[in-house]
Amino acid sequence: MNGLSLFKRASRAFDDYPSLAKLIVVCTVSGGGYVAYADANSSNGAHAVAPPVPEIRKKKVVVIGTGWAGTSFLKKLNNPSYDVQVISPRNYFAFTPLLPSVTCGTVEARSIVEPIRSIVRKKSVSVSYCEAECFKIDAENKKVYCRPNPDSSMNGKEEFAVDYDYLVIAMGARPNTFNTPGVVEHCNFLKEVEDAQRIRRSVIDSFEKASLPTLSDEERKRILHFVVVGGGPTGVEFAAELHDFVNDDLVKLYPAAKDFVQITILEAADHILNMFDKRITDFAEKKFHRDGIDVKLGSMVVKVSDKEISTKVRGNGGEITAIPYGMVVWSTGIGTHPVIRSFMQQIGQTNRRALATDEWLRVEGCNSIYALGDCATINQRKVMEDIAAIFKKADKDNSGTLTVKEFQEVIDDICERYPQVELYLKNKKMRDIADLLKMAKGDVAKEAIELNIEEFKKALSEVDSQMKNLPATAQVAAQQGTYLANCFNRMEEAEKNPEGPIRFREEGRHRFRPFRYKHLGQFAPLGGEQTAAQLPGDWVSIGHSSQWLWYSVYASKLVSWRTRALVITDWTRRFVFGRDSSRI
């Protein structure tokens, strides 16, 4: 009886819960056995099999580049609804601010790189990496065309296409040669780890060649003349690192070469480190003069041969001077990547240095393509382009005039959409927007101010003069990558509940707040354990204390604990044993 009761209960369970279909229950009772079999498609047709739930297709995000912008985007992206494909010929992220240290053995190359697969392997997002270079972007068909890394065994012959729903272009830029003859053939650049390693070998080779007994003193002097073209942060830091390397380490190993070494900086502008505070610029030029580094200002390079670099000094009647050299490092800013130039022609952005994006980092004219880092620049919209729409949106009673109260209701959205307004008020030392409107209206009480459209245009006519392009720095690229990842993380939520400013030309609000760069300061290592620091709030510090601040900040910004440990170890080794001068 017990067995029969168990059989009845099992049969009832199969009828009540069709999900138990095709389940066989075998029971043993007193040496015998019962087999209970249930089928969801029972003869009475009372229960039917539930249809399979269709799999939700993930949006395909293709990221081109593994530099500061691309890696920051990948690190912060945590929405699992995306399928991410990373394409780059470089399968690692490099901490580029330490490249000058790699050139002289202060830090080893392996210490500043982190494999991209290690960065993304523990993420909840599906991320795959392909070591290839993108050679064409097809915005119309949403495809990118790639070929294997030229350094691979396939020799770049097997081309392939990758589809995307969203494309993130973060492929950086190329060195800007200004089409100067001989630069590509004879100069060293300093943008990649391979560049730094090549410079390091070249420095050691120069000292080894100069030690050969068959050379004349004139030839030794030429070989040991190191020229840096460009007085920006990279060029200045390399010159400082090279000076320390020569005087602290190499002269001990090559004592006969000491009197022949010369380091020269060629800068076309009136000062080096133009983007820094004048106090830093003056200190750097005086320090380099004391250290024996020759800084030639107003010198424009017109040609580079295998043994001479030709310059034209401003104010010297156009006379060209030939300077013998042993090695040249070219550090004069960035130029457009060929792939980016081709893409810009495709979408009608010709005669530009970089891809133009809106304030949300979308490429203008391409809603599904984003560009960030050195390959792009934000095309900030001007207030005067939208002045009529702003006036109409603020004039809620359609009176044809605008009061202070009406304008104050939209001022937060205006300042968020057009950051130049806030900068203008700050530079003019105005307390609020009422002061700006009062200036246009004249001597009128704040409460009584009413402006028509022409008076409103007059009040804001000079606001757009505060617009500035962001610098092409690692700090900007990293912040852009983080911002864009946060936007992707909240894409669905922002579609339902927009959080951005008012759309002045349309209805509703923008999905997200526009990107805003926050400057956290900048450093300029000047050698001799001295660094210049310019921090927010016009705070300037120069000296040994700033060097230790530089150490701590750069160590904290490294991408992993592994690289932090390696770099700190390299710094310690250098303090104890000096820099490595072997040619490897």
TrEMBL record:
Assigned keywords, A-Z: Calcium, FAD, Flavoprotein, Membrane, Metal-binding, Mitochondrion, Mitochondrion inner membrane, NAD, NADP, Oxidoreductase, Peroxisome, Transit peptide
Residues of the EF-hand domain: 382-417
Keyword Calcium listed: yes
Catalytic activity, reaction form: a ubiquinone + NADH + H(+) = a ubiquinol + NAD(+); a quinone + NADH + H(+) = a quinol + NAD(+)
Record Gene3D superfamilies: 3.50.50.100
GO molecular function: calcium ion binding; NADH dehydrogenase (quinone) (non-electrogenic) activity; oxidoreductase activity
Major place of residence: mitochondrion
Cofactor: FAD
Record-listed E.C. numbers: 1.6.5.9
PROSITE patterns (UniProt xref): EF_HAND_1, EF_HAND_2
Top-level lineage group: Eukaryota
Family statement drawn from the similarity comment of this UniProt entry: Belongs to the NADH dehydrogenase family.
Protein name (Swiss-Prot/TrEMBL): NADH:ubiquinone reductase (non-electrogenic)
